[in-house]
Amino acid sequence: MGKNNIKVWYDDFNIELGDSLNQTINKGLSNSRYGIVILSHNFFKKEWPIRELNALLSKEKLGEKVILPVLHNISIEEIKNYSLLLADKAGVQSKKGLDVVVKQIMGVVSKKPNFPGAVQEYIPVPNMNFNEIIKYCKTSSYDGIKKAGEQLEKFIKISEIDLELAFLGAQHVVSLILIDVYFYLYQSRERINSIKDVENANLLCQVLGKNTLGQIKIIYNLGDIALRNNGFYTKETINQTDLNVCKQSLKGILNWYFNSYYSKKTNKDRLCLVKPGEFYKEDIQEIYTIESKFFDPSFISPVEVATQWYEHNNKTLIGVRDTLTGKLVGFLCTLPITNELFEKISSGEYIDTHISTEDIRLYNLPDFYKLYLCSLCVDPEYTHTSALRLIYRSFIEQLFDLAVYDEIYITDIVADAISSKGEELCKFIRMKFYKNTLHGTKIYKDSLLPPSVTLKGREGLKLMNYYKMIYEQYIDLL
Fold first, then answer.
1. I want to staple 319 with a disulfide (CB 3.0 to 4.6 A). Which of 44, 258, 331, 428 is the partner?
2. Which segments constitute the TIR domain (predicted)?
């Protein structure tokens, strides 16, 4: 606590020898109201600062300010080359001097928070004894933690009598935790009985991190030895030292469960929307990676081309990010295009991988626009999540806002459906099949003026009603 009564988390004096960097930094970020980010050219070149920045961005919600930028030897124009979102945030220049920087930061952080809800307090599992951990579990309102606590209590009691059964009990505690996390990630309850089961669930593996994975491996290995001993297949040596290692590993797993997984799960939705203007260069690369899981490379735009499209008109992308991993997991690319390009795509003889920015219009003037539904993908591991629904709703809201506030109206829509999922989307919004292409895909077309597509949901109905009104107003011009 400083002289201004502000509690500060800073890694140099909050991370001790032997601490898990990932867990300690996650704790610091999750328990902080604000993040002071020193933006420089070096900042954008390093992996860890970008990871921490993404975590802070996932905390920002409508009306909630989290990131406080300090610009060090870098201009707003230069920041635009790295992130248009950050370039839009008001920052203070370090060259104005430390007193000015501190004064401006204090002007923000000293204010009383005006957003609902508080970040869950960090549970200091490594410093607690098992009776304290069990008590915390029993008083939790969350069933997953309660069940883990019940099994943990059995583990402690049996560890005083039978080592083999104790190790099997520890394995059961871990399995309960992993089943809970697996269900949250995949919406499916699967038995997790071995480290191989964990490693085969790729997303689960990413979320756990290397440190927690290592601790889980220790528990499963000890449990497997105990199982063989109980079955009289062999008699491998296990002793009190192994039990102590087992307990420490359990604490590490519980620490992750309470503070990294559960706190994020309870304090925010796991998936957050990435709005137009909020994409990073790493996200464009991730878009290419996701598309590669669905399409032949000949149908995928190179990263540098997709980057040019976004830099030219940053309202062309909408995405979804996983707040647990920080990764982009789904996106929709829509391009407002010239009449000439619209006709080329409609002909079925054009492949869209190298569209020139000259053919992509800016949403800068009230006018009638033609839209190309360029690409929609959700990572296969997120098929059964809310990712697609979030993207769809955000897209409809974007069209509504463009119409209401900017008088930008979409007349015609065209899509080149490469995959079965693309066809499903076209059929979902009742777009009409137009023709087969020379490259083996299907063209779908329809219009919003006059209203012809059927956009589902409350947002879709609101947009279509507004477009019907606009059509009656401009019918003589269309």
1. 331
2. 1-109
